[in-house]
Amino acid sequence: MKDCVVGIDIGGTKLAAGLFDRQGNFVARGKLPTGSDCHPDQVIEAAVQITRSLLQETGIGREQVEGVGVGIAGHVNHEQGIVLTNSNLPEWDYHPLREILEKRLALPVILDNDANFAAWGEFRFGAGRGSRHMCYLTFSTGCGMGIVIDGKLYRGATGTAGEIGHTVVNPDGPLCSCGKRGCLMSYACGLALDRMARDSIGCSEETLLRSLCGDCPEHVRAETIAEAARQGDPVALRILTTAGHYFGIGLSTVVQVLNPDTIVIGGGLTHIGPMLLDPCIRALNDNIHPVLRDSARVVLSELWNDAGVMGAGAWIWERNP
Amino acid sequence: MKDCVVGIDIGGTKLAAGLFDRQGNFVARGKLPTGSDCHPDQVIEAAVQITRSLLQETGIGREQVEGVGVGIAGHVNHEQGIVLTNSNLPEWDYHPLREILEKRLALPVILDNDANFAAWGEFRFGAGRGSRHMCYLTFSTGCGMGIVIDGKLYRGATGTAGEIGHTVVNPDGPLCSCGKRGCLMSYACGLALDRMARDSIGCSEETLLRSLCGDCPEHVRAETIAEAARQGDPVALRILTTAGHYFGIGLSTVVQVLNPDTIVIGGGLTHIGPMLLDPCIRALNDNIHPVLRDSARVVLSELWNDAGVMGAGAWIWERNP
After folding, report:
1. Which CATH superfamily is domain B134-300 in?
2. What ipTM is given for this predicted complex?
3. Which one, A47, A314, B124, B286, has least CB within 10 Å?
4. pTM of the model
């Protein structure tokens, strides 16, 4: 009986995978230090290797595996199984990842954006269980969204719905990596935190950030900012407040446009806690029409790093219900 | 055989209605000078009166009418048939309009937000025919949106999805009627145009607007601004450019979050034409991620004022397919 699936989540720098059953119980899992910032050939090798190890290690045969779900950062056309764009490597543009993996693995493969699959993971097994219209947002190096509508993953016309990170929240805001000004991502993600910290150090504000990064502004990371803020540094606190505030404005857009019953927030930055999340929830409540207040349950992820792996695998069953 | 429906569209100042068949052919139509800015009792009388006239005038009996669809501005709970809030009249708050109309008309009644029903009208009979994921936006006194996903009207968890007018596009922007700053509505609707014109006249800028409104800034309307712009007035042109630009930013949010295949733009302001719409399309293209460029067909309404009436009536058949 085919009752297992493999889920693979290809992040920027690492690849996580798991083999699990219909109830969401992991039989095995693994990780490899390669990701979408690497050449596609390396990532394909890693995906093949990790799938083989999962099967070998458990003694589960290919015939018991329904398929392999693969989530990857960037823009993906799920139906065609193609990565449209991803990170900075042109080798990923229009890359037919699904077809190649299907041949190499001799198993059915599905491909989608990592935020979509993480949303599906939380919906099926995590903090979104029991919801009907759910949005999952990552507050992490970048900022992405996956949407579940009427209990189904919603991808939009060309598979790129949920691109909340590039919605404009301030036309006079900082330059975003996409070339526009004032995208949500230019305030509310790890890259934006780093930039704000570097700017503050650069303009010689009095701040603990300088000593904590050993006077090397380019070494500032979210953890440095969180540490300075915990020590009461006003510059670090202001940066976290700004990022949280804008993430909350992003949430207010989600609530007003999509009116979900549940919003699940995941991503590493959320571990910074109330210094970041309190301004976020305040901005959400301040920026929605009063009639929408409390319309959505806002909860933290339950699956964290497993969300993408579990959603990727579990979507196989949706394809073959 | 029940093969007709009545659609009623309750705008701010007038009520429009029509009796039509499954193919969208009007058998009769009518209008009354009352709307959601009036007391609910007046509106109910008008709705009853216009429905009776439509039936009398055509000789069509109640038994041939499947039901009456009613669209109204403001927040509506479709399932409960209740107006949540609307205009400035507290009498509308939590008003059980559907139940009252069903008793008075002795016909099944459905109730929804006017933008939702206008979206459905364009989807079934107008510029959205053949689409799958469609958004309808009004660029009018206010600014609203109706969403069709997978060929069905999407209302969200509490019936208030599509609240694009109150998404924040500039946190430092002008005060909106909802109390927040920099909502899309504070730039991109008729009320915002009037305010920008009054502000320009007030700060003694050299502008044709002053003479065109007979030196009474409170008499400035969108038509005054359009007329001044047609005569080359730079202040009026700047106002239209600003409004169009921000409406385009709103469209970019819709494209990035919902990734529809079709966007239909309706509402009276669109008749101002390229002076307003060119900056809008430019801002849309400038503010979406390149991978989403040309992902949505952007078209003008085909049904205009009939969209709300036709969508309201036609949704009766969705309820009884």
Report:
1. ATPase, nucleotide binding domain (3.30.420.40)
2. 0.95
3. B286
4. 0.95
